[in-house]
Write a structure and sequence with these properties.
single chain, alpha/beta, Rossmann fold, six-stranded parallel β-sheet, two-stranded parallel ribbon, 12 strands
Length: 282
């Protein structure tokens, strides 16, 4: 199987590439400089050379707060770019995996969201990801939509930010009124590669199991790293980010459960795995 990966320099793109030896076929990863998904011509050039069996579309505009001031750019990348890829997948009869987000939900439900719950995004980023889902579904019949949450891996992420701040400060203030599920990119990448080898098209939630607040997440990072830094809770209103976030966006991997797929690790176990490698590099 020949698989094209967009967003190859991002956390999920890197995690997928790291698993290349486990794939029965070949992965072709492209960063935004090598493949501008808003350019149909560039997409066609690459598809024409590779003729991919599948495309894992991890590339996206992910600056949640910046999107509030730049909605056109968020929609240009996340909707127009996704449309271009879906159209190419249709022409070349390629499977498509579209990576979406827990931010398609409004967080008012208060219990884990399944694939059958109604999306209602609160911010520009979430709306652009939801519209990306819809436009891909209208065009590409061989489509997997994969929603994930609070991703961390090889790249800029919350875990590395907390570890860096812990070296600089005795106290770190972290939001305590947003609940979701931290997800290790390596775990997500393995699940995606297993899924794309099937014909089980549809929408899937893929995150590590359980849920926590950002405050809880930061506390567990500090505990596992053995650092003395104190974590202090603050509200979302005090943090005053430009984009509104869902208060509760825990995902339940219900379609995987129904399919009999192996469960993801808990978020605590996955974080411990990540930190073993991350702290071992120091």
């Amino acid at each position: 199987m020949k698989i094209v990966i967009t967003g190859g320099s991002g956390q999920l793109g890197r995690a997928l590439t790291a698993l290349s030896e486990t794939v029965a076929g070949k992965l072709f990863a492209f960063g935004s400089r090598e493949l501008d998904i808003t350019s149909p011509g560039q997409i066609d050039d690459i598809f024409g050379k590779i003729w991919p069996d599948a495309v894992i579309h991890t590339g996206a505009y992910t600056a949640v707060d910046a999107a509030e001031a730049a909605p056109d750019e968020a929609f240009r990348v996340n909707v127009l770019g996704t449309r271009n890829l879906a159209a190419a997948c249709l022409r070349y009869d390629s499977k498509m995996v579209y990576i979406s987000s827990d931010y398609v939900f409004d967080g008012r439900q208060g219990s884990p969201y399944t694939e059958f719950d109604l999306p209602n995004p609160l911010n520009v980023y979430g709306r652009s990801k939801r519209e990306g889902e819809l436009i891909a579904a209208r065009i590409c019949p061989r489509l997997f939509i994969v929603r994930t949450s609070w991703l961390y891996g090889d790249g800029r992420n919350f875990v590395r930010t907390i570890l860096r701040l812990a070296k600089e400060r005795e106290v770190i203030k972290v939001v305590h009124d947003q609940t979701g599920t931290p997800t290790y990119a390596a775990d997500l990448a393995r699940a995606i590669l297993s899924l794309v080898a099937t014909d089980g098209y549809g929408t899937y939630h893929m995150s590590n199991s359980g849920g926590c607040t950002w405050f809880d997440f930061a506390g567990e990072i500090i505990r596992l790293a053995g650092l003395p830094t104190h974590i202090e809770p603050i509200t979302s209103a005090e943090f005053a980010a430009p984009a509104k976030r869902p208060a509760y966006s825990v995902l339940r991997n219900y379609m995987l459960e129904l399919s009999g797929s192996p469960p993801f690790l808990s978020w605590q176990e996955a974080l411990a795995d990540y930190l073993k490698d991350e702290l071992g590099k120091k």
